[in-house]
What we know:
Blueprint: H1 15-45, H2 92-95, H3 108-121, E1 127-131, E2 147-152, H4 155-159, E3 166-169, E4 186-192, H5 201-211, E5 212-222, H6 233-236, H7 241-254, E6 259-263, H8 271-276, E7 293-298, H9 307-312
Parallel strand pairs: 1-2, 1-4, 2-3, 4-5
Antiparallel strand pairs: 5-7, 6-7
Amino acid sequence: ACWIPTMRSMPRFGRRSAHAVVVILFVGMVSHLVLSATLAELGRGFARLTSGKAPRLVPQQAGMLARGQRRSRHVQGALSEADATKIDGTPDELFYLMPRIGIHHTDEGFRQQLTQLFRILIRPDSDVLDLCSQHDSHLPSEIEYGSLTVHGMNLLELMANQRATARFTQNFNSDPTLGELADESMDAVLMTVSIQYMQRPVELFREVRRVLRPNGIVIVSFSNRMFFTKAVEAWRNQRSMRGLADLVLGYLKEAGFTDVQAANGVRLPSKEEASDSGGFASFLPSFSGDPFVAAVGIRTDLAGSGKERFETAGAA
């Protein structure tokens, strides 16, 4: 039960003071209820899509990048209006108003695999574009790149990214263009755990293909974590990591990428391998943590011409 003070229960206060106390208590209770509901929703939303161990896309092999063996599965491209719907239809700018500096949205195992994939696929001195970035682009610290342009929804988060050489904010759900970037100006484009919020992904990836140089690479990584109310309907409806991978591969194919593959795990160097390669020691990733999937596309004019790039990464 909640006790609300009345005029009679506060004889020492004047009428105005009594009204002020009642208003303050009422506002406090409403704020508490709203905050509790918000935290509960975030707790449900920023959670796993499926319970238990994550299904593997393909059998794990000795190679660092595993090629998905696709059967005749339906691969979706551009999203319909219904598929692009979000539970929370408020402007995205409001949702990302508060900076989340220092907060990682996946566990350490996921981030280690992502950094290793970048180490393998992105050449030194490359010009890199990191879409939907924040304070960390997860690039290998020992490798020097030509430039790092970071995009996001919160400028303070981007300012905290110390490796960035250029920054810009833009809501891709309102404007999926990359008008500030010239044709064939980038060697690699990254998007980390953000594809689930894109309502116009094919339009965006067409722009990505435009700004990539020939043989440039796009790496879209994701897990089964999300802000549930901000994820699109097509993403929320999937019930497996394979379904999510097919969805993203469909985006890339519809956008014009002919060489696309999916990796569901990146082999980290053993202690012996690490000692031979400069001390980047780690154990093999544990699949009890956040599942790792990366959809990779290479800008090529002819199908199959990116095969060498994938084999360099250890494709099966």
